[in-house]
Design brief:
By secondary structure, the chain is α+β, with helices and mostly antiparallel strands. It has one domain. 26% of the residues lie in helices and 31% in strands. The protein is built from five helices and six strands. The chain is globular, with a radius of gyration of 14 Å. It starts with a strand and ends with a helix.
């Protein structure tokens, strides 16, 4: 079974303020006052199509511009992961105050690095990915239900 996620992750406050920007934006609350907006196909169409950033599947120019606006409130990350049968990878980028704060990373721990930048604490979890429960669903669409 595979794991596929494309989402914006940030503080509840930052994402709540901008979740109402688009009809298909669904705010999902996570532990540690974090939240996630799954980047479903419907949301990406609504935000606007454009060429995707290198190494990302759902980071179009309009999505990037939306994330930059959100980042004026608090840092926000764009995360992507795709795994099937043990093969795959992760990508992440973080913006803060309207500019890139963590450059694009394409590695096995890219999401952990982005979440660490956002202030996620491991606590008793296995890692930063596990701490806010990002393994709860195995597909972006399931986060939006």
């Amino acid at each position: 079974m595979g794991y596929y996620v494309q989402a914006l992750v940030g503080t509840v406050e930052a994402l709540t303020e901008h979740a109402s920007d688009f009809q298909h934006a669904r705010l999902v609350l996570l532990p540690q006052r974090m939240a996630l907006i799954p980047l479903t196909d419907e949301l990406c169409l609504e935000v606007g199509k454009g060429s995707e950033a290198d190494g990302f599947e759902k980071l179009s120019v309009p999505v990037l511009q939306w994330a930059l606006r959100i980042s004026f409130i608090a840092p926000v990350a764009h995360i992507e992961a795709e795994f099937f049968g043990g093969a795959g990878g992760q990508s992440a980028i973080v913006w803060s105050r309207g500019s890139e704060a963590m450059p694009p990373i394409h590695s096995q721990d890219a999401i952990n690095q982005a979440l660490r930048f956002l202030g996620v604490q491991i606590g008793n979890a296995q890692d930063e990915f596990d701490a806010p429960g990002l393994g709860r669903y195995r597909n972006t669409r399931n986060w939006a239900l």
